[in-house]
Each structure stands twice: as structure tokens, then as C-alpha cells.
Design goal:
The protein is of the alpha+beta class. The strands form three sheets. Strands 1, 2, 3, 4, 5 and 6 form a six-stranded mixed beta sheet that branches. Strands 10-11-7-12 form a four-stranded antiparallel beta sheet, covered by helices on one side. The protein has a two-stranded antiparallel ribbon with strand order 8-9. The chain starts with a strand and ends in a 12-residue tail after the last strand. 43% of the residues are buried. The protein has helices at residues 69-81, 103-118, 125-132, 139-144, 179-183, 203-210, 222-228, 230-243, 264-267, 270-273, and strands at residues 5-24, 30-50, 55-59, 86-92, 148-151, 156-159, 167-172, 196-197, 200-201, 247-248, 255-259, 279-284. The protein contains ten helices and twelve strands. The chain has two domains: 5-160, Ribosomal Protein S5, domain 2; 167-284, 2-Layer Sandwich (Alpha-Beta Plaits), CATH 3.30.70.
């Protein structure tokens, strides 16, 4: 095996253009409908193969928990593939944690895609998706590699083609929200009607999603998130005043605005105009994961 290292691999974040809770399973998991889109706010990962079988993570930016999704993903792939190799994994963390942008899940997906190649497994996407589903609800989306309509608990994915180019202003306040707290809130609506017809989005939903600034539906998690964390509402209003629309992504606390061409000049100055403690940037839609072609 000649391949010993892979460097500068991206792990892009995601936004939920809408997120409806349509029910709840007997086991307590919530049933969702959402459109996930990839954006160019990315972490960067580097990999080197180890001959001693050890898996070691090195944090180049903010420190991560000792047992994060990246190490869990590496261990799961190694066990499933009967691999004796190890790896050094360096992570330059740029996507804010606790934002609802899937940063940790995206890192785990990049680990699966990278080690599949570094260890010479050459598994197809379907086989990697089986492992991704055991790691968390968002990990399969990043392995899937395309903007997608998500159903079930997030594991049922169907690629969608949204017109581009697309741009978003994304801002996170200096607080994070525990997903379990939001899904456990008595304020959470759990009976949104389905917007799926014959396996695809209704035409009205597609039209709104195709609009430069149209936001279809809502995020059912936003109201309980704002009730628990007033900063989410502050960010939503701050963006709404500037760009005419705003919506929380995932379970928060990041909020985004969909931008038309006229809003781009102001959005390019976003980072310098944020209140103290807020982080944000102008993001572009990716359509496909940068590593999507690494697996079939």
C-alpha cells in the first residue's frame, strides 16, 4: 500500500432550509422533513497512516472532546473492515460547535471517506452509509454528498437540485443549545403536515426554495430554541432587518439569511459588522460535497 497521507480535506457545514417535525415514533425519536444544503464554511482535516494500529486525533484549532465523532467513526470503520492500520488525524476546526450546522457530523463523514481511501478499503457509498447511520442523524447526509430532502429521523435521503448560485449570511451567537433540550420542549410542534407528494417536494415548496430570498415553511425547533435562548431571537431579528429574512438552522443556535444579488455587497462586510461575541460569514452553496467522487 503506497498511500500514506491525505492532507487539506474539507468537511463542509450544512443548513436546514426548513425543518418540520411531522410526528414521533414509539421509541421517542422524532420524524422530520427537511432540505439539507451544503455550504462552504468548512473544517479542514489531515490524515497520515500509522503502522502501529493507533488512532490519534490532534486539534489544530479549538480543543474537541476526548471522545468525539471523528474517533468513533475511525474505530467503527476499522472494526467493520478488519483493518490493522491506525491513523493520525489532524482537525482544524472552523465551523462553530453547537450551531446546528453539523460540524462534528461532517468531520466524521470526512474521516470515513478519507480512511476508506487511506486504508485501501474502497468501499462503495452504500456501505459507508451503513456505518454513518450508527454515528448520528446528520452523518449520512455528508456521506451522501448532495443537497438532499431528508425524511424519517434524517436517514432517508433523496438528492434535490436547487438552482444556483446560492448565498447565505450565517451568524451564531456566543451560546450553544443542547439538541435534547429542544426536542424535549413542551413548546415543540410535533404535527406539521407532510410536504412530500409521491416522494418529492410539493411544487409550492420547490418554487419557494428556488426563489433568491424565499424561505419555504419554517423550522419547528426555532420557537422552543428562542424561548430557551433569547440570543437566537436577537440574531434572527438582526439578520431580518438587514436581509429581509432569517431562519435558525437545525436545533440552533446559528441563524441564516438567504441572499439575493443585491444583498451580497453588505454580506461581504458581515464579519466586521457583528456584535461582540457573535461569529458569522457569507457562505456559498456547494451543491455537492468536495469529496463526493471518492466513492461510488
Amino acid at each position: 500500500m503506497s498511500l500514506r497521507a491525505l492532507h487539506d480535506l474539507p468537511a463542509p457545514a450544512k443548513l436546514n432550509l426548513f425543518l418540520h417535525v411531522t410526528g414521533r415514533r414509539a421509541d421517542g425519536y422524532h420524524l422530520l422533513e427537511s432540505v439539507f444544503v451544503l455550504i462552504d464554511w468548512c473544517d479542514t482535516l489531515h490524515f497520515e497512516r500509522r503502522d502501529d494500529g493507533l488512532l490519534c486525533r490532534h486539534d489544530l484549532g479549538q480543543p474537541l472532546p476526548a471522545e468525539d465523532l471523528c474517533l468513533r467513526a475511525a474505530r467503527a470503520l476499522r472494526a467493520a473492515g478488519g483493518v490493522t492500520w491506525g491513523a493520525d488525524i489532524w482537525i482544524d476546526k472552523r465551523v462553530p460547535a453547537g450551531a446546528g450546522m453539523g460540524g462534528g457530523s461532517s468531520d466524521a463523514a470526512t474521516v470515513l471517506l478519507a480512511l476508506n481511501r487511506l486504508w485501501g478499503l474502497r468501499w462503495p457509498r452504500a456501505r459507508l452509509l451503513e456505518i454513518a447511520a450508527t454515528l448520528g442523524a446528520d452523518v449520512p447526509f455528508f456521506v451522501h454528498g448532495h443537497d438532499a430532502l431528508a425524511q424519517g429521523v434524517g436517514e432517508q435521503l433523496r438528492a434535490v437540485a436547487l438552482p444556483g448560485p446560492r448565498a447565505y449570511a450565517v451568524v451564531k451567537p456566543p451560546v450553544s443549545i443542547a439538541t435534547a433540550d429542544i426536542f424535549g420542549s413542551p413548546l415543540l410542534r410535533r404535527d406539521s403536515p407532510s410536504v412530500i407528494v409521491a416522494g418529492s417536494l410539493e411544487s409550492s415548496a420547490l418554487s419557494a426554495l428556488a426563489s433568491p430570498t424565499g424561505l419555504f415553511g419554517r423550522n419547528d425547533l426555532q420557537s422552543p430554541a428562542e424561548a430557551r435562548c433569547h440570543e437566537v431571537g436577537q440574531v434572527a431579528e438582526w439578520l431580518r432587518v438587514r436581509f429581509g429574512n432569517s431562519r435558525m438552522t437545525g436545533s440552533g443556535s446559528a441563524v441564516f439569511s438567504k441572499l439575493d444579488a443585491g444583498a451580497l455587497p453588505e454580506a461581504t462586510q458581515l464579519e466586521g459588522s457583528l456584535p461582540e461575541g457573535w461569529v458569522g460569514r457569507l457562505c456559498r452553496g456547494l451543491v455537492r460535497h468536495p469529496l463526493a467522487d471518492w466513492v461510488e
